């Protein structure tokens, strides 16, 4: 039996299930992000701070130094999904060096004060897909299936009781809609389809987290050794990472310890050992194949030198005007864009579904960052979930009393659209829903009709007034991010 392969697959499915459960239940949602050196290290560099929990990322690097690139083959949720999509894909060569260039670009950008690690980070990509596509899709689908059978069958009572049980647990996440979720889905599907180019093409050629682990793993004492060989090259042909060379030596930084080669070997002469293997043939001095790619030493040194030259210099081309309503107490816009990793945690836990991913509303730098869309959902007055699940502190944690005092923006009544002001129709829906104790929306009486207006000193910009306003096609009261607590 392929005991090590079975153990590896069990580990992959266990960690994938754990990852989905953590995101679904919002239990310790930052756990996988804190062990992620790509996010924790480069976000810390970008913000000139040390993120809480960064020590866990250092521990992962230390474990990689001992065991090799095990994370990619045994833990990474995106790697597991890619394996499911393309275990039998055609074996083709893939340019390993691309991921090192991407890692270099991320490093340079971080030293310049711009955090772009989120674009290529596999944990963030998978979390965003699960939070904004998988969970809403599954909950919506199950909800509709239950309702269909409850209505169409004679088992109303038992089905309805079971439905209520699910509604209070699995189906309790009311996240049926996210704008631009189609783009997020397409991006994820394209990564999965990259197996049509080569097995684990994303992991071999693109993934910068894999590049970090590759650089560290090449110093691991755990090595692949071939003792008996008939030169059948089956191990080389079947290697999902293309880590085995023509002379059957292994590029240690590319090996993800899948253990397939042990069981593919017809002579059972392949094994992994802690003793150092025989010295492989020497490589040309100008080539860093040991790093897992064809990146020349001159190019690699240039990337690192450029990174250190940029140390201490921050990009001053920041957005000076806040255009979007951000989550409560979110950092100032420039810091927020650097710190936010676009994981989707805050949007997934928003109880009103009001937090939505931005696309171009705040420029390319703000892509997929969360912002409040009051016409979809408002910021619940006593809710602090978004800050609790943010893994980087882009949205700080607040207690309920702090949250109640935090201003997201300010509402303003457009009297030309307001039913009370423009048509003399009795309507104080916005005032009735205002959660502020002393009512930030007040009314005055004119011609026997109560007409609303906003007290700017009390309004916190939660957006419930805009959400509940009956005026159509445009709401008569709207929230703008002006005078927010982060201005």
Helix content: 40-55%
Order the strands across the largest sheet as they lie in space.
1-2
Please report the distance between the alpha carbons of the first and last residues: 63 Å
What's the tally of helices? 23
Quaternary structure classification = single chain
What is the overall pLDDT average? 86
- Structural class per helix/strand content? mainly alpha
Count of the separate structural domains: 3
Folded structure, characterized:
By secondary structure, this protein is mostly helical. It has three domains: 3-125 and 188-309, no CATH class; 316-406, Alpha-Beta Plaits; 408-487, Alpha-Beta Plaits (2-Layer Sandwich), CATH 3.30.70. The protein has helices spanning 3-25, 31-34, 37-47, 54-67, 70-74, 77-86, 98-111, 117-120, 122-152, 156-167, 181-193, 201-206, 208-217, 234-238, 260-264, 297-309, 333-339, 345-349, 385-389, 400-405, 419-423, 429-433, 464-468; strands at residues 223-226, 270-273, 355-357, 370-372, 410-413, 441-446, 449-454, 477-480. The chain is elongated, with a radius of gyration of 27 Å. The termini are far apart. Residues 277-294 and 309-321 have low confidence and may be disordered.
Structure summary:
The chain is mostly helical and 487 residues long. Helix content is 45%, strand content 7%. α1 (3-25) crosses α6 and α9 (122-152) packs antiparallel against α10.
